[in-house]
Amino acid sequence: MPDLITNNWQSLSPLAQDSLWLALLLLPTFLVGMVVLWGFRPQALVGALLWRFRWTNLTFVLLIAVSVGIGVGLIAQERGLRKGTARAADKFDLIVAAPGSEITMMFAAVYLQPSDVPLLSGEAFNDIATHESVDLAAPIAFGDSYRDSPVVGTTAEFIRHLSGGLAEGRLFAVSGEAVAGSSVDLALGAQFEPAHGVGDAAEEDAHAGTELTIVGRMPPTGSPWDRAILVPVEVVWEVHGLVNGHAPDRSSQIGPPFDPDFFPGTPAVLVRAEALWANYALRSDFTRDDMMAFFPGAVLAQLHSLMGDVRQVMSVMAILTQVLVTAGVLTGLIVLARLFARRLALLRALGAPGRFVFAVVWTYAATLIVAGSLTGLAIGWIAVRVISDVVTARTDILVRATLDWPEFHLIAGFVSLTVLLALLPAFMAMSRNIITDLRA
Amino acid sequence: MSLPLHVESLSVRAPNGRLLLTCPTFSAAPGDVIGLRGPSGAGKSTFLYALAGLQSTMSGKIDWGGTDLAHLGDGARARFRRETIGMIFQDFLLFEELSALGNATLATAFNGADKRRSIRKTAEGFLERLRVPKDRRTVDSFSGGERQRTAIARALAHDPAIILADEPTASLDRDTANALIADLIDLTRSEQKTLIAVSHDLHLLEQMDRVIDIADGRLLSEAALA
């Protein structure tokens, strides 16, 4: 029997599974609602009570809404960030670098975060570039900048691989040319002088006299590379007073092949195999004493796995916070119910069954909970839009967080749990002494 | 429906056990209009609430046409009130955010679908008869007289055989109170109902068939009103 259920469940589409989950999570709410309201029509009365205490109710709704909004917003944002970082690393199949921290190297080479890393030798680069399975081996030399744009030395093939074709202009052909990322504030034909280092530590005049001209622009990639200016790697070496990767008789050459004897070193190399499976063999081949090879996607997956644990903790904390807020609201409702205890006693005096009074108070509480949750959904939606824009602006990683099924499931679970909690004030209201309340 | 009332050896106690009221015997016939009077705290409202089956701790017999309320459970008492008793309170006890019709048809919220239509129809009839505005205005804008007449329409909407009124004119001015008393007694007599009203209002009591004095939690003899 369990196998039958499992097999049937797995045969459903993801949409059907998510929809069913939502329905299952909301089922307790509907069941309780049906049982509590069976045979009664308390809507007009509840509406009257809600209106009478509208400002208090609005406060309750906002309290629930903010806690729900924060909860779903955090979870959606974390997922958006995870997808954004994964998308940004998508083009980086295999990174080879000098031995060190994979995470540091990934942040430096993929997300262009400033970092001091050891260089990979010309001999090592040659081994990579000449490997029979390697389709693309592009040096990635970072460390310089122009304003807030990192200036990265690489090859034209890498730009082609990263961008899938330029949005405008052409690839660099000589050492004085550069290609701008989509969000770099330099027009085609504009000239600039790179600084040594990045950020506040950048030395503006260190490379004085090196004029580079923008000749092409990449389309948006949704990654920090949109903010980068890509130059021939030879330029980076030359402005640092190093040999430019080629023998003197070929010193004007741009791009591969590089001469190992004249290769000054590179922080990282992007490697792409002809076949996807071959990347695994390359990782093995390039994991040696003098170099390390890693899949940024795998490192990211480890980070995400760690974040996944944090996410679970966050989810539990979000639910706990929401439940605590709702418990506070329900406690407030118990107090509020005393304010309209005389009206409830009146209903009993007029012959309303105790279960009707129970239904009135429960419907009142459930209305606040559902209204708060729906408002929270809207708050969460707005929050993820705003936070996504802020994160994208600050990290250049395109984050497109949206509310999705997990958030809907979270809210559905929250609603079901709290409407069950709402049975408590309803029960307490039903148990009050009619005469005492009538005379209050 | 007309229900004779017979009360015998009734004693009502507070939840803490304190004796609130005793009544050796008391009777009323359909069409009777009876007043209850006495000083504050004498037990008038306690007796009225006992007749409605609202007192939780009581012994003896409260027999309304064969139904002994004193020995019914909460649910059965609520059903009896729902079907047989109309209650009117001193300070109206209306839902201020509802219209007159909304208040008068309050019982449709907890009565079965079969009764909702008749309750609504009866309520509309009484509102018209009692000259209560039937527009969408909420009753918080009503005068005291309009409010109490709305409360009467609510009490009569389910066509109860018994009307129990607790100080129905206490919150009203003289003219309004007089008009209301006239309406209430006229309705009761014309429909062969039983009206029992707690009141300090001499004008109201003068129009009652009988007035019962209550003092120190005991029903005394019927009083003669000059």
Automatic annotation (TrEMBL), chain A:
InterPro entries: ABC-4/HrtB_transporter. The keyword Membrane applies. Signal peptide: none annotated. Keywords: Membrane, Transmembrane, Transmembrane helix. The chain crosses the membrane at residues 20-40, 60-77, 313-336, 356-384, 408-430. This is FtsX-like permease family protein. It comes from Roseibium sediminicola.
Automatic annotation (TrEMBL), chain B:
GO terms for molecular function: ATP binding. SUPFAM superfamilies: P-loop containing nucleoside triphosphate hydrolases (SSF52540). It holds the Pfam family ABC_tran. Coiled coil: none annotated. Transmembrane segments: none annotated. It comes from the Bacteria. Signal peptide: none annotated. Keywords: ATP-binding, Nucleotide-binding, Translocase. Gene3D superfamilies: P-loop containing nucleotide triphosphate hydrolases. InterPro entries: AAA+_ATPase, ABC_transporter-like_ATP-bd, ABC_transpr_LolD-like, P-loop_NTPase. Belongs to the ABC transporter superfamily. This is ABC transporter ATP-binding protein. It comes from Roseibium sediminicola. The lineage of its organism: Bacteria, Pseudomonadati, Pseudomonadota, Alphaproteobacteria, Hyphomicrobiales.
